[in-house]
Amino acid sequence: MTKKGENMGNTKRNVKGQGTFVEMENGKIIHRKYVESDIPGKRKVLTVRGDNRAICVKLMKKKEKAWEERMALINANPDETVADLCKRHLEFQVQNGELKPKSVDRREDTIKNQIEKYSLGYMQTQAVTPADIDNHISALIKTGLSPSTIKKVVDVLNAALEWAAVRNELHRNPAKSIKKLIMKRLSKLESKSAAEADVIVLSEEEEEKFLQETLRTNDNNGELKYSGGLYGRLLLHSGMRVGELISLRWKDYDKENGYIVINKSTSFCRNRNASENEAKYIAVQGTTKNQKARVLQLFDEAIEDLDMIMNEKGGGPDDLICRTKNNKQYSATMMEHCMGTVYKNAGLDDKVSGLHILRRTFATRMYENGADTKEIAAYIGDLESTTMQYYIAARKKVIVGGAVKQIVPRPGYRINKENEKIRKGDAPAGNRNISE
What we know:
CATH architecture of the largest domain: Orthogonal Bundle
CATH class of the largest domain: Mainly Alpha
Strand order of the largest sheet: 1-2-3-4
Radius of gyration: 30 Å
CATH topology of the largest domain: hpI Integrase, Chain A
Helix content: 40-55%
Largest sheet: 4 strands, antiparallel
Low-confidence stretches: 1-5, 427-436
């Protein structure tokens, strides 16, 4: 129990239950006392040092009081499970306005589907060890969940456990010591084989098929087949997030100069206070993700899309640009279902899904046409690091001998491609500046 460099003196036991005093050769006193531990089945030693016993007793009382207060917090929820703690932490975050409504929904789903249903979820929080966290992650990996989804689980667990530890409700955060190793393990699972795309985007052929399909009309009346087809085109030609797109009103669009203001985002979240007859989900409008408000100078294709939308739907300055046939606000879910049908009918690859692929394709085309990462990140409203890692595909999907292959082009490919187009007098496909 001595520190390195100390000389142990005579040990004298005090009255039973009051600990021991050790008189050191230098005249100092070390006072030790066993107390109830926060780890079941174990005891903890409190230690103080002083010039004499009276000082040690005074210091020990102060230290005991602090420890008793900590134990009171721990014992206030002795049977609290990991899932319960995660829910309590989420309630705290909601009360303090730390999360956006959509983020609350996602965190609720993570707790319900990836924590509460597993053995870790109903373990007593005080008994959880780093090994239990690691075993839980292994179980999630075996289910086939994506590494990105499992990383969110790790973040939720670590945040809740750290919150409890900081509040002295836990003696330690069992996820803290192992989080780095788990994240490294999950990152390895995200590595791509030679046959896989680093970032999934539409090939140029798939992009053309998609654009053609969005304009398909019904044979019986000549009207557009897809209610959201034009909106999908606008996503592809602007790189906007769907939440940003469905928030836009015609007054945000400066047709004369080809500018559009993006300063808000809409998501549909659970209506937690809904009565039996009220909608279960409500539209919530907030700032753009990462507070990336911006004014875009649109490309010709995006302007053409907006012209088609106006001709098809009409609308005044205060009307939403994206509206259903019944003039209701479009939701991200509706848009995703519509695009899923477009992808299927266009005969696109099975891996083509969701709406974000349109945003990734836009970013990749900009990169291929000579834009640097900083420009792209500013345009799509994201961080440079995120843009480079998640939005720009370095590999190109090509068909060789009837088989689809992911090819890494020669370095300088995009610059040579751009120079070739300039020599031919052609503007970059899909990225013509409105001033040209």
